[in-house]
Amino acid sequence: MKSYQKATWAVLLALLLTALGAVIFTRSWSDYRERLRAIRQAQRNTSSPVDTRALDTAQQLASFAITHLEQDYAAQALRLGDHSVDLAFSVALHDAAENPVPLTPQAQQLSARVKSLTAAVDADQARIGQFTAAAARAAGAAKDDLQTLIGIAQAQLALDQDDLEDAQQELIRIGGDRQAAIQKLIDQRKTTGTADATLHVGPPAGSAPSIELTQSASIAADVRAWMSLSAKEKLLAQARADATARANALSASHAAIQKTFDEGSPAPTGNAPNAGADQAAPEADTPLSRLRRQTEDKKNLADLGKRIEAEQQLASVYSNWADLVESRARGFLHEIFVSVLWVLLIGIAILALNELVQRLFAGVSLERREMHTMRALILFSLQALGLLAILLVIFGMPSNLATVLALAGAGLTVAMKDFIVGFFGWFVLMGKDGIRAGDWVEINGVGGEVLKVGLLHTVILETGNWTDAGHPTGRKVSFVNSFGIEGHYFNFSTSGQWLWDEIEVQVPADADPYAISEGLGRIAAQETAENARTAEAEWNRVAPAREKRMFSAAPSLSVRPSPLGISVLLRYITRANERFAVRARIYKAVVDLLRTKRIPETAVASPNPQPASAGRHPDLR
């Protein structure tokens, strides 16, 4: 291993160990929801003297209500939570009035200041009232003076009211006036519309559709929906447990207060019965005051009972809501099992078809490569289709499937143009006017014998010239089958691969050319009679039926003058692979004929052979 490779490995391992350590060190940070819930709970406990968890929980869960039935449950929970909080404010307000908290020295100073400022505001208002009444009776300069005094008194009133409001807010802030603090929260609820929270049900406007409403029958969508419903079910279970715990705690308080009433003692409605030294003196213990306190305590006890009932109903609503969510989650879980079953069935079907194809092609010999190519293509197609079906079951049908298929098809067409044209070219080559193994063809200027016509390629054994059937070069030449569509090829074969061969004989001027011609005709007819009959039958078979004509493969003679005497040209039909043997036999017979006529043997010549016109099938594509 080279030095830079070692350095790369070292850096990667160091980064891996660092990342692993960071993951282990921060693993507790991932549960941010629990920490956020604890922080909110602590803020609620320190900032609010009233327990509003019933409404807060209902508002949080209302945004998770998806279906109409869930939204009905969420609306009931909001209504019951709001009712419970209203009762909690009423009880807290009564408790703050009956049991004021002990005041600290700072609170006592602020309380005394509030009292003095309240008296000052009252005095200012009384003074303004006196001046206003006097100004209504006065006239002239006296009235103007009174108007000036009214303006000054109103300015003083505004200053005293501001000071009073500041003192009251400061007293509330340090906890010296629980009743005012609770009343302020009530006013805020009315101002912000929190008391009408039952209108806010369902997901926020403009949010994406919930995965729980998916119509896709895919495993991925069903799993996400099931996980969402499971998480919602846990939240509802926790909300039900909290509501039950609050109901139990309130029931215990109710039982304690009821027991106090039964024993005839004052009801302990608060935890701070002692007031500060500057608080108002307790009301005199008269029959009227005792009756008034008992009435307030009874009302407080009734509100506590109503709150217990609201919490119990809230727990019941959460229970019913959780049951609904659980049933929907089970439905998605069933769909997941059905999809998994389909995946397994598709896998088993692919394996079975694969085994079937293997058995069907088991008896094919190794020499038949095109059959093995076909087997490989079939197996690949089956596996690709099976994989596509499994992916569709897992991820579902894409919403823009047509666009995806169109773009993918266009891209594949451009990238695999030669393969696609070659594949369709195979069908052309397999047609009536195509080529077969063993044919003698010329493709793109290269001639030879066809060895194989595959799905994508055609392989030929090259020869130096197409007429040299018995003299191949030994090279295999492979062509993509696209030449069957875009190019052209020549097929010099029917089933016999016929060609016209020629022999030229020079007859001296003093010899009889006609006798020589007749002898040459007899020799060619004897040597090529069988080939001529076979060629004529094949040509007539491959010719279109609508052409009513007969082909002739009989030898022909052409006698013409030449500078050396008379030239006799003999044309005869022969097979390409038998050309040399037939010519050799004809040469021998011609030489014997010339010897009998006492003509020099140098008179024999052989022009270039020509392909048989009826046996040549040029296919221009």
Task: Describe the protein's architecture and organization.
The chain has 14 helices and 11 strands. By secondary structure, the chain is of the alpha+beta class. Strand 2 (446-453) and strand 3 form a beta hairpin. The model is unreliable at 269-282 and 613-621 (pLDDT under 50).
| Beta-strand share of residues | 5-15%
Q: What order do the SSEs take from the amino end to the carboxyl end, as H and E?
A: HHHHHHHHHHHHEEEEEEHEEHEEE
Total of helices: 14
Oligomer: single chain
Low-confidence stretches: 269-282, 613-621
Distance between the termini: 57 Å
Q: What characterizes the major β-sheet?
A: 6 strands, antiparallel
Compute the gyration radius: what is it?
55 Å
Net shape: rod-shaped
Structural class: alpha+beta
Topology:
Blueprint: H1 3-25, H2 32-47, H3 53-62, H4 68-98, H5 105-137, H6 141-173, H7 178-192, H8 219-263, H9 287-360, H10 369-395, H11 401-415, H12 417-429, E1 440-443, E2 446-453, E3 457-463, E4 472-480, E5 488-491, E6 498-507, H13 513-542, E7 556-562, E8 565-575, H14 579-596, E9 604-605, E10 610-611, E11 617-620
Antiparallel strand pairs: 1-2, 1-5, 2-3, 3-4, 5-11, 6-8, 6-9, 6-10, 7-8
